[in-house]
Amino acid sequence: MRDLQQAQKRNSYFFSSCCIASYAEIVKATVQKLQEQGLRPFLFPAMGSHGSSSEGQKKVLEHYGVTEKDMGVPIQSSLEVVQIGETEDKVPVYVDELASRADHIVLINRVKPHTEFEAEHAKIPLILDNDHDAIHAAIGNTGLIPAEQLKIIRIKNTANLGVVDVSDAYRSELSKRPDLELIDGSRPLAFDVNWNLTPFQNSKE
Fold first, then answer.
1. Domains of the chain: residue spans and CATH
2. pTM of model > 0.70
3. Which of 107, 159, 176, 181 has its CA 20 to 30 A from that of 91?
4. In which element (H, E) is residue 131 found?
């Protein structure tokens, strides 16, 4: 806490997680310690897509006994993010927009594999301003797989899979599937003026 004492009592940001034993007690003790240093902490629910919305995330925290009334500090939740840098592999790093305004970030969390989750394939929703940013973020977070080797499928209607767009990485696999027909050649993704994907271009849908 010594470094925080030298911060001239500027606002402090408190970053919260969940699924920790005695979680509410740990949060409460940490808040009180920060307040003793003359700081003004607020809580933020850091749980990815859990809760689905700002209010939904607050309800998740309430389930663990973390409320504004019990903690004595405000809980501020937002789904907006800002990019603060990149990793060595050029993967963009984002932080909550509210967190980016704070003078300090205090983490209470644990690092562990996801509970009862094992899968080779997974769906992770991306909430960004447009399709272009969402696709760029998804490709940038696939690890060490080169972009040209990524197998990507664009589906117009999951109830009708007659025609889909696939990336070039699927070409060799398509040649081995007599039940599939390649009806168009390669082309770059097309975006409108708002950087959202344009409608499917193939006339055989």
1. 2-108 (3.40.50), 121-200 (no CATH)
2. no
3. 107
4. helix 131-140
